[in-house]
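Journal club prep — side note

Before the paper discussion, L.F. wants everyone to see what a predicted structure for a comparable chain looks like in token form. Sequence:
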Amino acid sequence: MKRIALLAVTIGFLISFIPVDLEGVPAFARKHKLSCKTCHDPFPRLKPFGDEFAGNGFTIDGKVPSRYHTDTGDDKLLLMRSFPVALRLDLFVTRNKYGEEVFDISSPYNVKLVSGGVIAKNVSYYFYFFFGERGKIAGLEDAFIMFNDVFGTGVSFALGQFQISDPLFKGELKLTFENYMIYRARPGFSHLDLKYDRGVMLSYTVPKGGPDLVVELLNGTGIYEANEFKNFDDDSFKNFFGRVSQDIGKHFRVGAAAFYGRESADGITNKVSMFGGDFTISLYPLEINFQYLDRTDDNPFMEYEAPGDFKTRGGLVEMIYTFGGVDSPWYAAGLYNWVESDDELQNYRSAAVHAGYLFTRNIRFLAELDYIFESNYGEYLRVVTGIIAAF
């Protein structure tokens, strides 16, 4: 009852900020009076312009028209005229087969409130709140403030919580129901993966066509609640993630990434290192993404006498095709997952075939067939149909 009351009060508080003319289309499209297709193809997948828009702190060319903010007469205060907010609904009907068939109306599967905008010159924020994620109130996932072009250096600085793998391939932007499984792999009793964590992210693009650089400093404890001492990090370690990527011509991008971290429990420590590469081939309307990661844990089962290195390796191949270009309502996607580990419970292989239709720019119908070749549940087939809407 307390959760329900808190949810009702939160919804009421947020709705009180939303003027009537904000109803109908997502927040950024409303603000700049642009179609969703300016940044997405199809939503939530980002086009290059959408990547640039997000990298500029949700501004176009780093500039925010004065009409979006209230004139307070104080040049040290930048207040938005209205609180930008949008909702996303994911509704599915699934049929799983893992020993027995289960027909399920998984609706709503996700209900997400999203907000982001500019709160000062070169300062922006972004967050989303899961009102419902697979039947429970999940709370905040992405939530950060970003400073662009710090002291004129070209460096961007973000503080908050985000997915460690965001500089690789963003899980929030994928089109398939099937997930990117290599980012979720955790052998033994390890708590370290490339999913959500609290930390600092620094990014910089070397001028004149140079590479993009990203460095992250992380707690290594996910986004769970604070302990009795009001601390989120429960050990003395900090973890590090870095990536360098480079465009080669107009159609090819290649990257390399590394992670190093430590975790402890009852005085026992596990060291984790990951190395990998990725590339993207863009031959519009076809895009191919590839990711490979190799992980080493020296004591994932937290034993007093470490038995030796545990290896986990795997990757993904993703293909996206938009029929007829940006104005076509039809698209198709495919995803292959592969995870192989000395901890056999982490082994996973799957293939997904996905087709979608944009009923409108912000309402998407989809159908997907997933075949899981290897998992904890054995081999099984999954069929997914559904609707995703953002408004």
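L.F.'s comment for the group: The chain has one domain: 2-390. Keep this in mind when we get to the figures.
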